[in-house]
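*** Backbone structure tokens ***
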Amino acid sequence: MNEFTLVNAFSQLQNDIKDSELSKNEKLFLLSAGFGFHSLISSNEISFYKYRYISENYKNINSYFDNNISNLIEIYRILGEKISITNILGDIVNKKIKEFNYIKDALKLFYCNYLSEDEKLQVIKILNDVPKRFLQNAMDIGGVDTNINSLMDFFELMYDITDKRFRYDEKVAYDILETNKYERNKVFFSTLKNVLINKRNHFGRADEITLAFIDNIENLLIKTSEDFNISMAKSLLK
């Protein structure tokens, strides 16, 4: 995924929810979620300064980072002793955890302990609005593969910080169908099916997150697209 595209998608989400009626904790979580994306994190350091002077196409990113630093600090303040270095090192020594990421694991702690059940479901629903902002029109197999990789990168982060609860919903399936149309739909669905099957075969059974992602996308498309069903059925006849 183009990391600027992802951050720009999050910055648009920020604009949408800043004046919404969401609770304070929902906003804190949603407005900090993008910091967990691996391209922005290096050795647990927030590497954002290089994005200060980039294309005008991503002019919202400065505001995104400025606001999210404040939100992440507030999450750290609320977590307090739960993420103190003494407690974290103690948990590692006592083998309660193997390691601790001060972005992803802190966000997961906040999600698990400070959001109500309704709020947890609500933030997952809102996060499902983000893919429509980074999916691009696919004109060939490379475009399909790029979109699937982008969806997988986003899924991996959301899966981690929502304690494995995140799944794409049907509106994401419709976003995929709307932004990925060849001149002939049969060619597109055949390509999409092949990309998903190839990823499943490549990663095998060991990668829990990848398999959860592929199952999620396949199940959504089976429910929403007759053409995708036809392509999948044909693959079984080979």
